[in-house]
Every structure is written in structure tokens, then in C-alpha cells.
Task: structure prediction
Amino acid sequence: MMRVAVRLTAMASLMTLALGAQAASVVVPAGTGVYNGLIFVGSGTLTFSADLTSALDVGKVSVSPFGAAVGNILKDSDGLYSQVSVSAPLTSLTIDTSTNQVLGAATTGGATQVAPVLKSVSSGGSLTVTDLNVDLANKRVYATLIGGNGVGTLTNFYLWDIGSVTGSTAISGPGTFSTTLSGLSITTSGFNKFSQSLGLLSLGKAALSGVTDFGTITSVIGTPPVIPEPNTYALMGLGLAGVAAATRRRAARAN
Result:
């Protein structure tokens, strides 16, 4: 019985430690939240791969920024995409409080794709991918999808798997740090929602299925100085007034 009790106690301790490890994280709102005396501002930039832009060219799909995102969308003299990227402002970071590792990041805004009716390629449709939520711990990207052809709005949708993560993933102090997520591969359900939203037909689906790398996400995050709140200024003022009064009293006694 004693051995059983010891084992149960050990298991309970391990479970407590595991739950504690899972709970040791905090979500810090960008621009307003403070973590270890730091606030965070920044953006995430989604850059489409050459394979993806080629697939868009096949379907004559137009791309435009959505919401708070800013687009950098270029075409060559033949009207084919030479670059497609959208940058969206950071809304929050999820940080492991025991290691200062960034576990996740969220942005607001994205890109809208519109497919025209094109024989054997598309029956027409649209898809907006916005509000990315990156899960670095599990190397996944979630997003809000707003799709045509009956898809509707899907929030926190598991869209891409991340092939590799390079750059800074820990908060080491003030400064600017950058992280790049490469090799974005679409999930099966993501492929299906893309196809349905854009109304892809045989040639359109074939072009999309040939895209093994959807691109990269690069985040650049900075830590500007924290501005004290008005209450802090008031306390500082009271403190300085107290010091001044004490100095005057000492001077009066000396005289």
C-alpha cells in the first residue's frame, strides 16, 4: 500500500508540474501590454512563394491587401506576378514566463484573392486570409478565412504547417528582433477551403496542388521605451515635492 501511495504521490507531482509548465505563459497585447518592463510593437509580413504566384497567374487571380494590412504587389511587363507580400501589424505575443520564449504571435489584416470565371480553371470566387495567429510551439499557422461559394467566415482555422523557424524566438531585453517562418505547407482542410472559396475547377486545383511551399512569414518586433502612466507621474511629483520640502526644513534648521 505504501508503494502505491508513493507512486500516486509521484504521479500527482508530475501532473502538477506539467500543468504548471503549460500555464506558465502570458498573452501581451502589442503597444499597451508590459512584460518585464518592455512593450512590443511590430508587424508580420507574409510573402507568397514563386510557386504560389505562378498558380495565381494560371487562374488570373487578383490579390489585394485586406483590413490593416499593407500590400506590396508587383507584376512584370507580361502581367505576371513578380512579387506578392502583405504586412500586417502585430496585435499580441504569447510568451513563456519561465524561459522568455515567444510561443506565439498574432496580427490583424491580410490578403484577399479574387478568381474570375475561367474555363476549366475556376467558376469564380473569392478568399480572404486574415488575422494570422502563429503557434511557434507546434509550428502551425491559424487564420480567419472569409470565403465565397458557401465557405463563409471561419475563425482560428488551421491553415498552414511551418517547415522551419529561424531568427530570434526569445525576449532577451530591449531592442529589435526578427523571426522567419519558412516552408509553409497547406493543410488538407486548407486546400479544400481554398478550392471551394475560389471555385477552382480541374486545372485550377491541379495548379494549387502543385504548390508545396506557400511562402514565408517574417516578423520584426521592437521594444520602444515604456511611457509612464499619469498616476506614475503624479506619484513621482509627490515624491519630488516631499524631497523638496525636507530639503527646505533642513535648510531652515541650519539657519
Observations:
- Residues 150 and 247 are 75 Å apart (CA to CA).
